Automatic annotation (TrEMBL):
Top-level EC class as recorded in UniProt: hydrolase
Family affiliation: Belongs to the peptidase C12 family.
Entry protein name: Ubiquitin carboxyl-terminal hydrolase
EC number assigned by the record: 3.4.19.12
Amino acid sequence: MSDDGKHKRWFPLESNPDVMNAYVEKMGFPTSLFSFCDVLSTEEWALGMVPTPVVGVIMLFPIKPHTEEADKEEAARIEKDGQT
């Protein structure tokens, strides 16, 4: 966090793999080698539908008031005790 009191805002990611693939392809990402796809579940039946090899996972979840409160509490703890 900067000293001027301004906070960086993270904007929500699009959860549509087609949109993500088109976006990163415009930035030069080799979508012919790697691409985004939906993971419907972490159960074996669903993981079998995920193309391999997998090199990363992006977890998307809704931001709710309790999530933001937990983030503030964690930031205060880190500022007080340091990052572990």
